[in-house]
Structures are given as C-alpha cells and as structure tokens.
Fold this protein.
Amino acid sequence: MTTAEGRASFATRARPKGSTLICSGDWTVRHLQLVEEDLNGVRWPSGPIRLDMGGVQRMDTGGAWVLQRLLVLLESSGHEVELHALAPRFAGLLQLVARTQVTAGAVPRPQRQAMLEQLGHRAIDGLSQGIGLIAFVGEIGAAWVRQLMHPGRIRWAQIASNLGEAGHSALGIVGLLSFLLGIVIAYQGGVQLRQYGASLFVADLVGLSMVRELAPLITAIIVAGRTGSAYTAQIGTMQVTEEVDALRSMGIPPMDLLVLPKLFALIVALPLLTVFADIMGVLGGMLMSSVQLEIAFSTYIDRLGVAISVDSFLVGVGKAPVFAAIIATIGCFQGFQVVGSAESVGRRTTMSVVQSILAVIVVDAAFSVAFSRLGI
Amino acid sequence: MYGASNDSAPTVVEVSDLTMRFGRKLVHEHLDLSVRQGEILAIVGGSGSGKTTLLREMALLQPPTSGRVSILGNEISGLKEQQTLRVRRRIGVLFQNGALFGGFNVLQNVGAPLREHTRLSDTLIDEIACVKLSLVGLTAADGLLYPNQLSGGMRKRAALARAIALDPELLFLDEPTSGLDPLSADAFDELILDLKASLDPTVVLVSHDIDTLWRVADRVVLLGEGRLLAEGSMQALARSTDPAVVRFFQGPRGRAAQASV
Ligand SMILES: Nc1ncnc2c1ncn2[C@@H]1O[C@H](COP(=O)(O)OP(=O)(O)OP(=O)(O)O)[C@@H](O)[C@H]1O
Ligand SMILES: [Mg+2]
C-alpha cells in the first residue's frame, strides 16, 4: 500500500482558467490547506463555472466537505456550476457530506462573556467558594461530633494508613530540609556573631528560630505540597470516576471515610514531624557551629537548654495541629470541588497547594502577632 | 471464507504466533489471525477472554510478549518511532469507555486529531468536525457540550466521531454498543454499516452483543481458553456443533437474536 507521503510534489492545486477551475492532486486533510489557500486566492468571474475534478487523485470527507462548501458558495452567489469528471467514488462522498446538511456557518460558537460579566462570575465564584469552604468546615465538625458519639465508627485502619503516608514517609524529606536549614542559619548567623565575639549565641539563634518559627512553617509547607496535594488528587479522581457517588449510594458518608481519617492523621502527624524537624534543625546548627566556630557539642547543647524555654517549644509545636487542620481541610475541600475531568483534578490540586501554603503563612503571622501581644 | 469478506482482498492486519502474558497470567498463546481489507471482523468471547487485549495489540497500544503483528503492510516490531506515528494516523480507535478528553468540548475532541496532524484553518477544522458529528448522529449544538455533560450513548457517538476524524483506513471498535439501550444499539449498528458503506474502512470490532454480530459482522472469531476457538460467518458459527461455540451462541439470548434475523 502506498501512502500520500512523499507525493506532495504533485501537489493539490485548484487553478482558474477562464471559467473552468481545474482541480487536481490529493484532496485529503493532509494536503487540504493547499486547496484552501488556492481557493481563497481565486477571484470568481461572473457567468457559469465549470469545476474540472478529473485530476483529483484522492479525496476524503474533508476534501468532499471543501468541495461541497465551494458548490454552495458558488450557487448562492448566483453562479451556474457544472461538476465535471468527478470520479464516482468521490461523488458518493460528496453526497454523504451533502446529506449531513452541515453549512459553513453552522459551527456553534461558545458564547463569549463580556469583561464585566466575567468579572461578576469570578466574584460570585470566589464568594460561593468561600461560603462552600465554611459549610465544609461545618460538615466536618458535624461529622466529627457524630463520630465521637459513636466511637465504634471511627476508622482506625484508615487513620493508621494515612498516618503512615503523611507522617512516616515524610520523615526523610522533612529531616533533610530542616537539617540543611539549621546549617544555613548557623553559617549565616555565625559569621555575624563572631564579629562581636558572641559566637556562642549561635545556639540561641538556631534553636529559637527553628523551634519557634521555622520548623513548624517549613514542615507545614512540605506537608501541604506533599500530602495536601495528594488528598485533593485522590478525592478529585474519585469524584471523576463516580467513586464518591458510589460511596454515598452505599450509605457510607464520604466525610467519614475520606475526610475525617485524613484530618485526624494529619493533626497527629504534623506536630510529630515538627518535633522531628526541630531536632534535625538544631543538629544541623550544631554540626555547622562545631565546624565553623569550633563550638563543642556539649557547650552547644548546654546553651540550648538555657535558650529554648518550654514555652517557646510549645508555641512552635502548638501551631502544628492548626496548620494540619488547615491543610487537610483545604486539600479535601478542593478534592470535592472537582467536576468532570482530569484537567479539573490538576487545577484543583494546584489551587489546594497554593491556598493551603498561603493560609498557613497568614495564620502563622497572626500567631506571631497574638503571641507577642500576650508576651509569650 | 464466507460472507462479504473475500480471500483475494489484501490483508490489512496479520497476527501470527501471538502470545501475551501479564506477569504470570497468560491471556493468549500462539494466536494466528488475519483481517482482510474491507471486511468487518468481530472478536467475541467471554469476559476476560482477552478481546480488548488483542485489539490493543493490533492497534499498536500494547506490545505483545512475543509473536508478530503486521498492520497496513508494516511489521510492528521493526517500526521506528516516526513510522509508528504514520501508521497510527491511518487507524482509528473507539475505546471501551469512550476516552474523550475531559477538558475539551465535543467539537474540540473531534477536531483534535485534525488540529494535530494537518495545517488546516481553525474554521475548516471545526466545519469538518461538524460534518463528522452529523455523520454519527449528533447535532452541531452537541459540539459545545463537555464529555461529562453527555449521556452514555452520546459519548459513544462522540468518541466514534473522533475515531473517524482522519478517515482511517482501519477502525478498531471496542464494544461499540455496550451500555446502550436496544434502540440506540440498533441505531449504532446502522451507523457502523453506514460509515462502512460511505468511507469503506476495514473494521475490527469487539462485541458481546449477538444482535450486533448478526447485523454487521462479515466474519466472527471466538476467543477463549487463550486461543482462537472458532472462526467463520455468523451463519456458519450458528450451525457449528463445536461445544464451545454452541455454549456461546446457543444460549437463550443467542437463539433469540438468531430467530430475529
Ligand atoms: N494491564 C493488565 N495487567 C494485568 N492483567 C491484565 C491487564 N490487562 C488485562 N489483563 C488481564 O487480561 C485478561 C484479558 O483482559 P481483557 O481486558 O482483554 O478482557 P476482555 O475480553 O476485553 O473482557 P471484557 O469483555 O470484560 O472487556 C483479563 O484476565 C485481565 O485480568
Ligand atoms: Mg474488554
């Protein structure tokens, strides 16, 4: 079997010659743009027009459509058209296309919205998202209360597997990043502190900044990117494949099976991860201090004991469950917002990560202000 | 051979000594099959007998464990990336669940292969897509709907319109009528015959629907136990005394379908 490839040289052309249009070559979608260009360039003379189709080697429905469109165009502009030497098999195609009764203007266009209308829709969407999120939080609360009243319905197995996914598997990345962060802070701070002969305070610097602020924050950000996105993608895909509806139809509330275990698991896992990040960050700082500032491990640790109060530690770890609740809630909420397609899953996953990181940082700032007012 | 297919027609798909395993699971072994130009070949068999798998192997979507597949005159195993693409452009596949792109509306779905493989103007592509929609019995207005807004039957039709977007020489249909009500299924059978008459592709279809087999198939192959159990026209298979064939075609449904022909 031969294909049209490599035969472009005997290209498809439609040329006006007097009142005869000579058509030749391959009238197939692969070569049709040449026909389209030629036809656009034709200035039609008045009077009858003969279309000489004798030279057309191949034709598919695309080619037949172009011919049909041409016939309709010519006839509607008052020409008498004669179709000459069209091979019978192409005539069949032409009939087929004519039977579909599609006309050149029949292509439906999605309605374009005016700018103002779009803006309005955006605003309303945003608002209803916000209201939806609040309602979702309410539903979670209600489901939580229901479950506390019937502790037998708590899904321990789900919680355990989520705990493993969100907590245990994240140890590596959380540990590595906070260790490196500890090193960076100790290095940058150490250079400055040494100038004032206050090298030893590098332990205060690393310890306090890690434990109070950076460890909870970086852990939350990692978990939002890692686990929050996974929650959205999982629930979103289940939404697309109607698995969520299947659960509902079996009388299993999706809240109980999909949301609460994730929420519980993350509320437990994030503080634990934060403590782990505290330790790794401080260790990173300790290593750097000993290398760069020649502070002995024991000295560093002694100093830490003085610098980090129990309050500071609790402030840091105490923020983690709040962050966890934010991440899990937004992640699951966005998952349920998915409609229809894989593309929607992707979009919602992005939104979930962006919104939860934003919310975590805003809430963290609010905590900072509140704590400083309270003098903790 | 029997019916409309004819021995002298060139072979479009040739499968020989084909074996397929998923891990330890054997789907089929030493399978030989050829599809001749212009025929409608139906693959039948129980659930899990490997019909979809065989179709995917023939449609260049699943490399077999061993054996030869040659399609439109090209031996698959020897094909380079570029040649594979060229062959793929000449075949159309209707997937079991439609596989429409969820982010595109129907018109964009049908226009996608044209947009990818030709340099036609957007207007012309949309018009051709409308022609294809009309060919499969959808209206131009349906073109603006998104796949999740379609009924099961409309989804099948839209997917078929996309499969025939490039006027393929070879069309693979995986369970075209499953999930359709009897009337829609009948209409879909008509549609396949219509397309066959007008565009004359070679068609390989998988179906459980015995009515479809009677109405559209020139030749039927029965898969089971990892091999080809029987092959022939529906009339021939209906007369067969082979126990496997009798079991498949002579159940109450099979007899009812035959009686109605
Ligand atoms: N990707 C895969 N991995 C493992 N096993 C598979 C895979 N795809 C198919 N199978 C197995 O191969 C066998 C044949 O599957 P196939 O989908 O071809 O069946 P089928 O005949 O199309 O069935 P149905 O009529 O239900 O669609 C089944 O037992 C299935 O479990
Ligand atoms: Mg199948």
Summary: Residues B 22, 25, 27, 45, 47-53 surround adenosine-5'-triphosphate (ligand 1) (CB under 6 Å). The longest strand of chain B covers residues 11-22.
